[in-house]
Structure formats: structure tokens, C-alpha cells
Amino acid sequence: MVRCPPGIRPGERIVVSAPRNSQGTQAYMATVPHGVRSGEQFPVLVNNQQLMVTCPPGVRPGMQVRIMVPTSRRGTSLSTPQEMDPSSSSSGSENARVNSHMRSPFGNQMFEVNVPQGVRSGQAFALIANGQRVMVTCPANARPGQKIRFQLPIKLSSDEIQSIKLNYQKDGWVRCLSTDLTFHWIRSEGEVDGQLKDSRDLTWAFERIAFVRELRSSATVSSKSKVDHSLQLVPAKEASLSTVVPAINNGTSLAQELSRYAAMPFQHKEAWFRQQIAKIQVPWEDGHIKINVRRENLLQDSMEATESITQGDMRKIFRFEFISEPGVDAGGVAREWFQLVSALLFNPDFALWSYSSINQMCMQINPSSGVANDEHLRYFHFTGRLLGKALFDRQIVAGHLVRPLYKHILGWPVTVADLEQLDADTYANLCKLKDLEDVEVCCLDFTVTEDHWGTAQTIELKSDGANCMVTNRNVDEYIQLQMRYRLLERVKEQIKALLVGFYDVIPEALLSVFDFQELELLLCGLPEIDIEDWKRNTEYTGDYERKGASNKVVKWFWEVVVDEFDEEHKARLLQFVTGTSGVPAQGFCALQGNDNNIRKFTINSIPEAVSVFPKAHTCFNRIDLPLYESKKKLTKFLTMAIQMEATGFDID
């Protein structure tokens, strides 16, 4: 309860501070849910932790009770629930309490939301507000369909938040928690620059198409011990992910932990992930695996040995031995094995993998892998197990994957933009379609032509596709079918084998805390970056060309990279500009573009009025760096750009 101070009139703003107990407890106000009687308990969510509160005598549903909660044992006090601003209330709207563990020195921002169908007074429901996953408790007397208001801490001004929304959320997808404790993907859509987008606008449709791979397993009819797997792309909004890992917490949902750690820095995520892996690793005394291989037949021996291991044994401790060679595996032999075997697997000469169409540092699946190797699916299953075991054992592999494959492993949405790394020409042609007034002038049909070892093969994207011309009315379907084919169908069996092998080792739910850039860092490690080599092999264009490295803004850029960015941020900057954290063995002088020619790291100038954020052009290894007026602004917006791009925001 808040008492109006003397001299304060209705509509004026007041500041409310919750009392803090001097002995390490924090006071909270909780609303008694509908149907709860005196003496009965009801759950309350505080800082993503569920507490049980006993309803005091004489208290009825809808009334508020004061509870005292111990502060965090880690030394971080629990945040105080934010009180509503009296000046913001309006008729027909109710105030909701938001369960948030964030505290911001920049104040709060007001949000409005309609109460979902089926939600009762006192019941909590999940939603996304300003890119944050929050739980909101429905106020007393609020009904489904009625608007309620709540506040969230913000770290930026309203103008900055609006700028981010307009510049970064064109096709951003955010994972949120549903009431059934599964993760789903939702998307910010509808209004841009205050105008409602027309769903018939091809440019709008082009930007909003996204799919998520769906991997299903089922026991075969002939044998319950054998499992069949199916793989398909589904619209991103229809995809879901269980938050249960049977081997952890007795099979109860990890939704609260997964949601909390997904919002934390990379180092915190990895530390939590390692704790979970330790829970499912089989102790040495309960059994371990010895892998014996011949160095001259390393790849086949390793594949045969690993594929003979049961799924349950993949979480045992492995020890490696090269036959006829002395030495005890105390860690060094294992590191060598992972490096050598992964290098052989990803070697294009073995024909399982080929280079990305825009980046020779990244590997994509060779659609013709089955022609070159009859056992290619066994090798892809082995590749999945190798990558999963490397992640499980904190080992590093010698191969960077294209972005769509990391997304498939994580179950992230893939978009039209992901086509560029697989087929730059197809991506460029699809981009041109959205700008044409009449697509029929292109004379396209629903087919694709593949080159299989010198032989042209026509593949129909749908039934009778060869006789179906692409028109303005069906071009959206054409784009979606191209996406389905390029991102999955042409290599579906290979991807399915890889995913099944990977999840033989790593529970899928545990990966939901990471983004695709972080997964690359986990599997490939932080690169050893020679800053002086990077500087020597950087080109400058635009207003930066005349003075080059002596330009004031360029100096600030390198000072930030050298003095303020740690190894993770340097790697993220490389990912942001070049598409991967990898550095060529020959150094930065060997960076290539999408035309396979040398494309050095390039810093190009753009006016700050055009964009306050840096822009990346991964095809050309180029960053458009605004002409900032201060080093502080450069640091702020460069840091935001390399961190936010990973969450799916479009900044080109």
C-alpha cells in the first residue's frame, strides 16, 4: 500500500522504494490468486525462482500480502518489483506485476499487453517485451482480452530503443517459453516506422519467411529398440523444443534455468553448460572407452570404432591410442585425435564437404557426397558424434561450418539470408525478384538444375513444377520452395545423420542457451588473432582512405579492439564482418570474398546520419563504420552491433 504524500495531486509522479530488511531479506508484495483460501499455499515467481506462499487468515483472492525473501547467496540482492507510475494509468487498463531479475540505472519503460485467453486473475503468463522474456502476473479483476500495463528496466533511452527496433528487428526471431514449458519462436512483426506492413508486399513477405528444422524420432514397427528419424522444415512459429533433459533433475523441466542463462554473457552460459554436462557424464569407475586407431588409416579406423559404440556409451570417458606408438593419453593424444580426424573429415578432397560459396573458411555439405562415397551417411553420423563428443569433452575441431548448419544444430530459424552462404547466385537472384514489378519476365518455372559431376539434372520443386511458371501471384511460394530445397532438401539425409549423431552425445535442450556464433566458438575455440597482422592487412575506403590508420575514427576503432575487447569480442567482431571467427592459416592477407579472390578486411566510412550502427558486408569482408563524433559512441554502438547480430537482427 502506498500513501499519497502531502501536497501531491492526482496525476503527479511519485517514487516508491520497497523496504529492505537489514538482515538480508527483501520485501515483496504478492497478489493472492483466484480460488486460494486462507491457509492454502500458492506459487510466486521471484527472480525466476518459484516460491510457495501460505495465504494468511482473513485474506481473500485479489488482496495483496507482504512476503520477505532472503537475498541471493551469491551476494546479489533480489530486485524489487517495480511499482506502477500513477500518471500512466488509464481507464480500462489494469496494472500487472512483472517478475524480473534485471535492475537498470536508466529507469523503466511502460508496456501494454492484452491478457491471453484462458488466463485468470493471479495467474502468470510469459511474453516478450523489448526482446526480454518476462513472466507477468495477471492482476485481480483483469479478464482475457483486457489491456494491462507493466514496466521493465531499460538500459537505453527511449530514442535508442526505437532506433534499435527500426534498425535491428526487421526479421528478428526470439525464443520464448510457452505455458506448456516448451520453447517457441516468436517474431516482431506488423509495424515499421509506424505503418502496418501489407502482407501482400513481396519485400515484406521476403523478409519474414523463416523455417526451423524439425527432427522427430519413433520406434520402428519391426524393432522397438531401433529408432527411425524424420527431418523436415516447418514454419518458425510452429517449431517447439522440450525443456526436459531426462538425465538431469529427475526429468523435470529446466525452463527456468534455460531462460535465465540464455540472457547471460557467454562465459556464464558456458560455465552453466559444463555443470550440466558433468551431471550426465559417466564416471570412470562405471566404465570407459578405449579407441585404438592406426595413423595410416586414421579416418576409417576412427569412424568404425566410434560407430560401434552405443549411444549411452558416448558419454563415457574416452582414451585414445595410436597403434604401435608409445604414449599414454593424458589429454594430449585426445587433442591430436580430434584435430587430425576433423581435418580429414572436412577436407574437400574426401568429398563429404565443400567450401562455402562466400567464405573459403567455412564448410558446407557436398550435395553429391553419396556419389563419391557409398558410406557417406555413416560418415555424417560419425561427424555428428565427433562434434558432439568434442563439445562434451571440451575439445576443439578443425573445421568451421556455414551458418545454416549451426542454426540447424541449435534449432534456430533459417531465413532467405542464410542462402547466401550456400549458394550466392541463387540468393542474389531471389533478392532481385522482390524488386521486379513483373516476375514473369524472368521466365522461371518451379525447377532447379543441379550439376552432378558434369551431368545436368533437373529437379522439380513441386509436382509438375516444370510446367508451372513463376508469376506475381505464386512468387512467394517459389521463394519458400527454393529455401526448403537449398537449406534442407538437397542434403536432408546428410543433415539428419549429422544431427542424430550430435544428439547421441549432447541433449538438445542444453544448447538452447547459446546462439549460433557462440556454438562456433565452443566447437572451434577462440582464434589466435595477430592484431598487428590484422592492422597490416586492413584497407580503408570512403573518408577513411586518405589518412588510413591515422584517421581519428580509425584510431578509436583499433584502440577499442586492442584495449577494450577481450578475445571473445574480437572473435565476435570477426564473425560480424567476415561471417566466421576463423583466420586463414596464412593470416589476414589470405582473406577471401565470395568470388574466391583476396578480399582484405576493409573499414569503410558512412555518415552517422545514415546509420548510427556499424553495418557488415560478409561477402566483401567489409565493415561500414559511421563517422562517429566520439570514441564513447563508437565503443557503444560497435559493441552492441557485434553482440546483437547473433540474435538474428538484420543490420545490412
TrEMBL record:
Involved pathway(s): Protein modification; protein ubiquitination
Residue stretches making up the HECT domain: 310-652
GO CC annotation: cytoplasm
Ranges of compositional bias, category Polar residues: 73-86
Transferase recorded as keyword: yes
Protein name, entry field: HECT-type E3 ubiquitin transferase
Originating species: Pelagomonas calceolata
Signal peptide location: none
One Gene Ontology biological process: protein ubiquitination
Annotated segments matching region Disordered: 72-99
Catalytic activity: S-ubiquitinyl-[E2 ubiquitin-conjugating enzyme]-L-cysteine + [acceptor protein]-L-lysine = [E2 ubiquitin-conjugating enzyme]-L-cysteine + N(6)-ubiquitinyl-[acceptor protein]-L-lysine
This protein's UniProt keywords: Transferase, Ubl conjugation pathway
Matching Pfam families: HECT
